[in-house]
Amino acid sequence: MSKPYLETQPDKKGFFGKYGGAFLPPILEKPLAEIEEKYQQLKDDPVFIAELNSVRKHYQGRPTPISYAKNLSEYCGGAKIYLKREDLNHTGAHKLNHCMAEVMLAKYLGKKKVLAETGAGQHGVALATAAAYFGLECEIHMGEVDIKKEHPNVVRMKILGATVVPATHGLKTLKEAVDSAFGVYMETYEDTLFCVGSVVGPHPFPLMVRNFQSIVGFEAKEQFLELEEKLPNHVIACVGGGSNAMGIFSGFIDDDEVVLTGVEPEGKGKKIGEHAASLTYGEEGIMHGFNSIMLTDEEGEPAPVHSIASGINYPSVGPEQAYLNSIGRTQVALCNDDESIDAFYKLSQLEGIIPALESAHAIAYAMKLAKTLPKDQTILVNLSGRGDKDIDFVVENYPIPKHSE
Q1: Quick one: CA torsion of 266, 270, 273, 278, rounded to 10 degrees?
Q2: Would residue 230 show up in a list of annotated catalytic residues for this protein?
Q3: From 223's CA, which of 149, 214, 230, 317 has a CA 20 to 30 Å away?
Q4: 117 is catalytic
Q5: What is the DSSP string of 53-91?
Q6: Are 252 and 231 in contact (CB under 8 A)?
Q7: DSSP string, 333-373
Q8: DSSP per residue over 86-115, as a string?
């Protein structure tokens, strides 16, 4: 029998097919080699695993449940829609799954500080939470545009004790936050661990984050079988970098009968600068230390991007997402800003669940798909985060519809 997918990818150099790897300045080669060596030691260490499992159960509140979205399903009139409720994970999103583990890794490495980028602020909040729990310093870099847009999460990070550093160059969003954080890491790596916020960056980060997030998929598979006595026909997640998608996809990756769909942000249109749909419109290229599919301008540089959802507003995608799409194991769908707002309000008013704008992209596609499928089909959506962080921005820019609309 062939080995399970998760045991074969990536290869020892961090490549998923031709995507991934570690394209680094020489100064960072040794620090990242040390991170990989320590991770490989700890991932099978019974003491580390027991501590992580205890944290997940007694602090994070795992397992998170699966909810049947009965009212939304009836509204769509087709397939049954289920939600994996990562919005109920402590701090309100899936991000804490890898942040607690990464900060544990930092402690085992003897680091005093953790450093990261954030877009929507959920990774920043999660890392600040983990740093507070384990007693480490925390520094979060965030685009100046996102700081204004995601003000509640900025306040949460500061309350938790983190230092928030604005990225003020370029478009002042997620890419620039990554640039800024990497610049600091190159000068402070001896006592700092850079905790990448998605399945992006140089090896071993895509591997580590995927494996730490895979708890979502393993839980979901067991829960869904208990509820329906069969696997879902479709599993859907939004994709920017792709950590929440790889988290839930991991549980079903070897089940070929389950269709895995990543939903990219089409933003305001198909022109460069109007969207952040890397897999749909991008081409192969290297950015932030890894080879993947990315959006480029006429000079071949990372292109400007747009999405209403800050957490998926990124001009590239995780290398594993690029690989799985290239071999046909996953498919890609699109959702624009208006569709995500409609899904945001529909889920809120029909189910009493306010989703993050990132998650609303996956909900929007699930709604469209459900209408085309018979009622005996099932859809499982990774509801990757809650929308508390987005409500001020949404209501200031999009009128609250009446319940009947």
Answers
A1: 60
A2: no
A3: 317
A4: yes
A5: HHHIIIII-PSPPEEE-HHHHHHHTSSEEEEEEGGGSTT
A6: yes
A7: EEEEHHHHHHHHHHHHHHHS--B-HHHHHHHHHHHHHHTTS
A8: GGGSTTSBTTHHHHHHHHHHHHHTT-SEEE
Residue with tokens 């792709």: 242
Residue 247 and residue 99 in contact, taking contact as beta carbons nearer than 8 Å: no
pLDDT of residue 373: 98
Tokens read off for 194:
């850079």
Q: Which ranges in the chain are annotated with CATH 3.40.50.1100?
A: 32-57+95-209, 61-92+214-397
Q: Pick the catalytic residue from 80, 84, 95, 175.
A: 95
Q: Distance between CA 306 and CA 286 in Å, rounded?
A: 20
For residue 131, what are the CA distances in angstroms to 101, 110, 152?
11, 14, 19
User: In this structure, are strands 19-20 and 378-383 parallel, antiparallel, or unpaired?
Assistant: unpaired
CA pair distance 17, 351, nearest whole angstrom:
41
Which residue among 150, 346, 384, 389 is the active-site one?
384
Distance CA 220, CA 240 (A): 21
Record the pTM.
Answer: 0.96
Distance of alpha carbon 269 from alpha carbon 278, whole angstroms: 13
Exposed/middle/buried for residue 91 (C-beta within 10 Å: 0-12, 13-18, 19+): buried
Give the confidence band of 404 by pLDDT, cuts at 50, 70, 90.
low
Q: Given 3.40.50.1100, 3.40.30.10, 3.10.50.30, 3.50.50.60, which CATH number is that of 32-57+95-209?
A: 3.40.50.1100
Q: Are 304 and 174 in contact (CB under 8 A)?
A: no
The pLDDT > 90 percentage for the chain reads 93
In the CATH scheme, what is the code of domain 61-92+214-397?
3.40.50.1100
At a CB cut-off of 8 Å and minimum separation 6, what does 264 contact? 238, 239, 275, 276, 277, 278, 279, 280, 312, 332, 333, 334, 335, 361
| Residue from 36, 86, 102, 117 carrying the catalytic annotation | 117
For residue 228 the two structure tokens come to 């329906």
Q: From 217, 389, 384, 247, select the one nearest 318 (Cα to Cα).
A: 247
Radius of gyration of the chain (CA): 20
